[in-house]
Amino acid sequence: MTERAAVPEREFQATVVELLEVCGWSWFHIFPLRTKHGWRTGTTSKGIPDLICLRGPDVIAIEVKSDQGRPKPEQIAWLNRFADLDSGHAWVISPDVDFQTLSRWLAHPRLAPVRHGY
Questions:
Q1: By the 8 A CB rule, do 16 and 62 touch?
Q2: DSSP letter at 6?
Q3: 75-86: per-residue pLDDT in tens?
Q4: Is the C or the N end of the chain the one with fewer CB within 10 Å?
Q5: What is the residue extent of each domain of the chain?
Q6: Exposed/middle/buried for 98, CB within 10 Å: 0-12, 13-18, 19+?
Q7: pTM to 2 decimal places
Q8: Which CATH class is domain 9-30+46-116?
């Protein structure tokens, strides 16, 4: 059995962003900052998803993880807030995601799961 090389989270996220753009989504990413308390997003709220994506009335919050990464409780809390919106979706995705399925979800979000990966 051949092991697959680990994909760095930043590299994987760049691939996801390319797919979002191909599918017509606007997106933003809040870059983390190092503070005296450790790594934090540029906001006052811990756990904001990595990518917030908008297209028409739809919003998708995406937490990007490495192969071994798992969402923290504050990240899950934020994801649930987005999933509870009328046209909201919230996903945790990692490099093992099936890109054909992800492409289909992004093309037709109403057919995609509201919550995925957590």
A1: yes
A2: P
A3: 999 999 999 999
A4: N
A5: 9-30+46-116
A6: exposed
A7: 0.86
A8: alpha beta
